[in-house]
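Bumping with the actual sequence this time:
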Amino acid sequence: MDNLFRNKWFIRIISLLLAVLLWVSINVDDNMDSDSQWFNDTSSVTEVMNDIPLEVQFDSEEYVVSGLPQNVTVSVEGPNSAVAPVVRQQNFTAFVDLNDLGPGTHEVNVQHSGISNQLSVDIEPQVVEVTIEEKESQDFPVNIDYINESEIENDFTIGDAAIEPEEVTITGSSEAIDRVASVKAIIDVGEAEGTLEDIEAPVKVYDSQGNELNVLLDPTTVDVTVPITKSEKDVSVSFEPEGDTPEGVEVDSITSETDSVTITGPNDVLAEIDNFDDIPVDVSDISESGTVEVDIPLPDDVSAVEPETVEVEVEVEEVTDEQQ
């Protein structure tokens, strides 16, 4: 055996056999991996992704754009190993580049970035029409638009609302600015049981047909305080003597510095009352001119009157038997 290992030809043959075995082993593993990868990658799949946001690249300081869809549909086709991460992560972008275009209407291609070159990509729509216009800005006053106003209880009244800020800046194309007919803050008063304070209300812009306009607003909301109070009404008052004066005295006049009072109650009740005429003043114990405090009577369904009493000046004069 020792002689065999000392034989140089034996050693060479053994080395050659080992080298061949090593080469075969490496190439068999590589071929298996290559076959496996080829089998997987050649299984082409197609995936459709809906509602992919369409981004717009343009000079937003100078222009406004319109006509573009908000979303597009993106289809990708290729090896499953490349398609799967794109569909799962959706870390790509669909966009239109308008940076080299000026005002006017243009047809532009929808592009994409961030998708592997291994994949075939189809975007629907592929071509979109966009209108580019120079940007304009203008200030408009904000008005209040109440909803569910009929649900407020009958004895409450909505006062003049306080709005902060009173104006908003609308930015858009000159055509859109010309269409602005009203700017409103929407307030829901349906469940109000008193004054609504510091309500953050969204601002809406409408044309003359009541259609909402797609324009930029600054700010997009305003703070609104709406006074909602018990319904009140001022009504005039007048007085008349009641009862017989003592003998030898006659009422000459009844006057008061108070010519009206404020009554509180349901709106439909207040609508029927315009004045308190001929409020009685008891003169049966009045023998000389002076001041009398008179209670203001409450009509049916009126909940309060302010003031509740009024001072009146009663002027009397003495009469002789001959005058009587």
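The tokens above came from a reply further down the thread. The chain is about 20% helix and 50% strand.
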